[in-house]
Design the sequence.
């Protein structure tokens, strides 16, 4: 994109009814508008536009349906008590999107422009941001390959789309410990695969393990695909263990997703002088710590659920209870601090928050 | 599906122009009609119909765009010199589709009904089957998850679609040896993953290796994701090596696709009393055989290319020339026999061929 791109605005005349804050499900309701942008090899990314939320028209032979060339991101817009709209480290999402793009052979997007597009769309849909505690506007940017061609090769046409969904808390019960199962049969991905990328295939691969898991299992804990010993991550969260006063999380090894929440947790722990190690951690180490009584806490960290304490870890009919099934102090402090910063309730010493200005219906210029 | 399902026919009045036989690309042109069928948790698979080929209308939040829950198949319809239309072992494709469905948590289809749907659609589009040597009508059945929901869980809505594309030979040069690169960095999948299933994510994961491969590389040869030593398969083909008079192919280990062509090759070789082994085979064994002069042939086998002799194998700047870069006798015999059976030129001792009756515009009944 060499010229300045202007986002064309094609707004709908009347909006849909908004759901009640206490009736929000996750990812089921979408706002009145969406952002779209097209890519062709000849024109690059072009024709950015905000249009009414409506079905896409996609050829049955579009490559995304057959060869899964797609990436996505997930972030949230938060409403503060003062009525301001805030994003949390959105730059990292678009950086990660480009990282995913690279792995999936999708042409890179202009990260700064994508952020402006999000801001413009969120500003337009401000009235859709729910107000109740723990609720937010979930933002889903994604790219799909749309060339009508049945051949295994990178597509020459793509669409970059952003949709918005007002969401309640991810786990209806709030910050309550969940039950996680260690997955011993299925593998999500392996080094050299697509685990570091946020692409559909990783999630498609994960469904079966969840289906096979016993009742009451919130998500599964993935082990590495090679030795089936080392902990990778949970369904849609990175994972942390507090053992003997130290927090440990699996190092970025090429097969786990680098979570924005993970990075924020690590920074907060360092800021608080809580020892934090990024390294390989095996299930054996966790079992051993549990046996010795040094497994103090376990929790997942991700945008959707923020911090999710793990109260019970199930593996091969063994049930490990962690911290008597209660939320630990570290998980609680992280949850309160992260949500505090996100909702503008506490100070943001890290400059993580990005304000969305009230520019309703204005147009946006960005150099591409 | 408890009742008999009738395929509703909604035909277009005038057809598109058909491409010249000598100008056929692979997977770029589609016929006038397609088959569709819907699934909901309440109704099961329902409303089978043949409609004009046209874009699908899909919600931007449809799960297939985000979480990659999709499967597909690939088979061909062949026109014989007598004007008959033949399919090659299509039952295996729908059986494999259900195997893929199971791995991807997609509800199973009625295999017999799907085959009838293919036959009805192909019969209707008979005029689209090209006549020239090596050409055929490529059949692409696929299932996509269409529930509008941003959550990692199996979809509750799906569409099963069949589209048809008249195709020329997969490799324009015909049965000419290709150059294959051994992939040492990227991994397609691993045991416990989705390698046995025909699902988009496997192909999305494969694009990068192809992009990184040097000029002139037709496809890459995947090694196992654990030890990175054992041969798995080629991009869209299973692979065979003839070493010292014996043919060897990697055993089905849970991470490679069970090809219909692979199975047919094995049966043919047994029928001919050519020794054939399905077992682990390492790249070291292939290098060693090459060094000792016992690596007689290598070839890929798949629906699109039928048999593709491998004339050169590239790895870490080593170039192995196989059979002086010529098509070997075994590859040639397999190619001639398989295409001979498919095009009705030679006898079919295995009952592999399935005729498509000329039932244009008739309706079809099947119990679901
Ligand atoms: C597989 C996986 N791991 C980890 C995460 C957490 O990442 P983030 O904190 O950026 O939401 C997510 C969710 O985005 C995920 O899908
Ligand atoms: C990964 C992969 N392996 C092998 C094959 C060969 O299978 P078949 O002979 O059924 O076409 C294909 C093509 O379908 C494939 O995509």
Sequence:
């Amino acid at each position: 994109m060499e010229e300045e791109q202007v986002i064309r605005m094609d707004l709908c005349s009347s909006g849909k009814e908004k759901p009640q804050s206490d009736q929000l499900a996750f990812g089921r309701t979408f706002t009145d508008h969406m952002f779209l942008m097209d890519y062709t090899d000849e024109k690059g990314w072009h024709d950015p536009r905000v249009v009414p939320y409506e079905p896409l028209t996609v050829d049955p032979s579009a490559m995304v349906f057959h060869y899964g060339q797609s990436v996505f991101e997930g972030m949230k817009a938060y409403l503060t008590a003062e009525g301001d709209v805030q994003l949390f480290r959105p730059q990292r999402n678009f950086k990660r999107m480009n990282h995913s793009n690279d792995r999936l052979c999708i042409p890179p997007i202009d990260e700064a422009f994508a952020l402006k597009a999000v801001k413009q769309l969120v500003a337009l849909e401000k009235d859709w941001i729910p107000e109740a505690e723990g609720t937010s506007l979930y933002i889903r940017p994604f790219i799909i390959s749309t060339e009508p061609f049945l051949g295994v090769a990178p597509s020459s046409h793509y669409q970059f789309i952003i949709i918005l969904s007002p969401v309640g808390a991810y786990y209806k019960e709030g910050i309550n410990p969940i039950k996680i199962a260690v997955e011993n049969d299925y593998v999500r991905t392996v080094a050299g695969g697509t685990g570091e990328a946020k692409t559909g295939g990783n999630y498609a691969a994960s469904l079966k393990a969840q289906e096979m898991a016993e009742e009451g299992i919130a998500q599964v804990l993935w082990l590495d695909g090679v030795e089936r010993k080392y902990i990778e991550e949970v369904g849609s969260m990175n994972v942390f263990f507090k053992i003997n006063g130290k927090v440990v999380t699996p190092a970025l090894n090429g097969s786990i997703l680098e979570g924005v929440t993970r990075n924020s947790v690590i920074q907060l722990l360092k800021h608080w002088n809580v020892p934090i190690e990024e390294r390989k951690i095996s299930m054996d180490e966790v079992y051993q710590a549990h046996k010795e009584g040094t497994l103090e806490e376990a929790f997942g960290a991700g945008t959707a659920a923020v911090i999710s304490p793990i109260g019970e870890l199930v593996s091969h009919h063994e049930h490990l209870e962690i911290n008597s099934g209660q939320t630990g102090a570290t998980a609680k402090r992280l949850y309160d601090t992260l949500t505090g910063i996100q909702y503008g309730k506490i100070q943001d010493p890290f400059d993580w928050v990005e304000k969305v200005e009230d520019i309703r219906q204005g147009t946006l210029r960005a150099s591409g």
Observations:
- DSSP finds seven helices and 21 strands in chain A.
- Chain A touches chain B through 65 residues (CB under 8 Å).
- The pocket of pyridoxal-5'-phosphate (ligand 2) is lined by residues B 74, 233, 236-238, 257, 259-262, 302-303 (CB under 6 Å).
- The domain at 178-326 of chain A is CATH 3.20.10.10 (D-amino Acid Aminotransferase; Chain A, domain 2).
